[in-house]
Amino acid sequence: MPLYDYRCSQCKKRFTQLVGMTADSKPPECPTCGSSEVRKLISRFARIKSDDERLDDFENAALAAEDNPRAMRRLMREMGKELGENGDEDLEELIEEAEEEMENEGLDDYD
After folding, report:
1. Global pTM?
2. Dist CA 43 CA 29 (whole Å)
3. In angstroms, rounded to a whole number, what is the distance separating the alpha carbons of residues 87 and 24?
4. Among residues 8, 2, 4, which one has the least CA distance to residue 34?
5. Sign of torsion over alpha carbons 78, 79, 82, 84
6. How far apart are CA 53 and CA 45, in angstroms?
7. Largest alpha-carbon pair distance within the chain?
8. Across the 111 residues of the chain, what is the mean pLDDT of every consecutive 10-residue run?
9. Contact present, 68 and 110 (Cβ < 8 Å)
10. SS3 track for 60-98
């Protein structure tokens, strides 16, 4: 069964729905507002990246953000989520401590 992307005409939310191929399959409905007034979208192409490719992407992003503390913190949060690390709470705590330290030292935090 294929997955299709839709946009609701009522609430404008985008959603993906698994569509059955049988004669009695129901038309898609928005999961947010329940409207059946939806428009089929062109689906994005997706491929699974290897762990090495994902780490390379983060390395490149880290090099670009190394002089920007706010961008680096954002990247660290994304990296923790993307890699599914169990230490999300520990990572978040470290980031918050670094932010407090910067505020206490009066360092500029630019974006």
Report:
1. 0.40
2. 17
3. 46
4. 8
5. negative
6. 17
7. 67
8. 87 88 77 94 78 84 81 79 64 74 65 41
9. yes
10. HHHHHHCCCHHHHHHHHHHHHHHHCCCCHHHHHHHHHHH
